[in-house]
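BUG: 3D viewer hangs when loading the predicted structure for this chain

Environment: internal workstation, default settings.
Expected: structure renders.
Actual: progress bar stalls at 90%.

Input used:
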Amino acid sequence: MRIKDSQAEARATFPPPADTGSRIPDTDPPKHLLQHARINRHKEKPMYDPILVQPIRDEVTRLGVKEARTADEVDAAVKAEGTTFVFVNSVCGCAAGGARPALTLAMKNANLPDQAITVFAGNDVEAVKQVRSHFLGYAPSSPQFGMFKDGELVFMLERWQIEGRHPLELAQTLQNAFNEHCVKIAA
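Structure tokens produced before the viewer hung:
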């Protein structure tokens, strides 16, 4: 059998789908396909199982960092007088192996921000969107650290600056930012 004959036979056995033009249907994909989709098209549902991410949240809140879960909570913290440190937490490996251990070390610094908040990428959709609206000029990333002084962004550490760096090196970067912008002395 020649190649052309086998191609013709394949086309006859498995005809191409009917031409629907280039128009994409206006309907959402079936719900069973969305369950495992990486993009959370239904904002009311968290991307990750809240029970599974709770220990990741707890690792940060044990340090005295408060969770901000709404846009209003984010705005209140960011616009507050003094220094506000923001951590965009994540389930990724560079958050687990670098960012959270660095934060743990950095929060032992003598100079600390007046307040520290955290939002969780993928689960605190509204809060993360609001934080990112305050990070003007920076691409959305997670994990991510930012610091505001009297409502003005004065420090940023993005994912690309976190990936592959040792937690001690990251902690030193955070502590340098605390020492430069914060005056509160840790007890």
